[in-house]
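Q: How would the structure tokens look for this protein?
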Amino acid sequence: MRVHDKIFIGGEWVEPSGTDTFDVHNASTEEVIGRVPAGTEEDVNRAVAAARKAIEGPWASTTPDERGDIIAALSAGIMTRLMEFAEIIAQETGCPIDNSVGVQVYSSTMVLDYYAKLVREYPFEEQRQGAIFKTLVRREPVGVVAAIVPWNVPLFVTVLKLAPALAAGCTVVLKPSPETALDAYLLAEVAIEAGVPAGVLNIVVADREVSEKLVVHPDVDKVSFTGSTAAGRRIGSLCGERLRPVTLELGGKSACILLEDADLDVAVPGLLPGSLNNNGQACVAQTRILAPRSRYDEVVAKLAEHVGAMTVGDSLEKGNAIGPLVSERQRDRVLGYIEKGKAEGARVVVGGGRPEGLDKGWFIEPTVFADVTNDMTIAQEEIFGPVLAVIAYDDVDDAVRIANDSPYGLSGGVWGTDVEAATEVSRRIATGTVSVNSWVAMDFGAPFGGYKQSGLGRELGPEGLDALVELKTVVLP
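A: Here is the predicted structure in token form.
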């Protein structure tokens, strides 16, 4: 039981202004494993003030090398406590421990390491010969960043925002999800040990109403949000009213196309980590499996074989492929989608309910639907659980049409023996990232983000740092 009674503001643990708290549960057992203060509007005001004070103080004069050293120290600090982070996140989110170690924690340090190196090479200032005059182009920190992160990959998404913000010279007010707040407290401890200056990182756990106060705060210069498309619309509208820059990484309903020549013995086990990663609680999950009509039954059978063999159980037990969902609310939501799929005529091949023998914990069987058409609810809406929909297509043009027939465009995949042909298909898919013969949904050195209702702007790569600087042109004599 981890009980925190203070809030991290200005480099110190301070008393919250209110008395309300949030309980954090172990998703496998439903037991309360932690408690944190519920931030108030006053706490938000204090956090933003601390961030503003830091950006107007010594932090503003730090060099790229000095900021790189701090980012590297954060990475090293997380690595020294890797298993502690992994176990906390596995319990909070339900993410299986093997996955939590790699995807949730180690990947976070890789992002930090990338920006620790990039900041030393990034062109913060460059001279150009313009059309008339010489110019000096400067890239300056955008200012105080409100970073609002979801519950599914809390540390990793935090780092997607924090690492480039630190590299740019910004300060951050981090708003974690109340459901997965414990790892943020551990990150604050690491930040202190790493020498992050006071006020550069501030953390306030808050509900939706108080979070909105952060979004509209007059001293916030940029908002970076990862979460649902519905919440993204609200945040985008609030920022639009204030002409405030915003990055939105939102939902997805990504398609994985199995081409006619795909080797299913390679492709099916190869795609599943990208489809059921984190129990399907991933915005990049490729949950629409598009199969050629001529091989449809073969694809369904192969998926049923592999998904049916997945072990479901406690997220802390090594070897389990599927853990629980994050909450009772999320489990019931996914069960509702499964019932909707049945009602609309889709056929459950594997799974379809709660696993036997797991009476405690918010578990759902990994589920495969066949006979799905792309207009069904389970093919159009983001389920955020371990549910796959297998959709038949007639030819490559039809596969591309189906893949693009979605309000989302975040991720996607193409599998085929002819890599050149598969790559050509990837060019036709309207989505931010497409993997060819791989389940990997992103590369930390390349931009990540979505088309359509999957968001605005990009994270990762140099583009992730570009999003946190303002451009200034100085015209020279």
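The longest strand covers residues 134-141.

The longest helix spans residues 97-118.

Upvote if useful.
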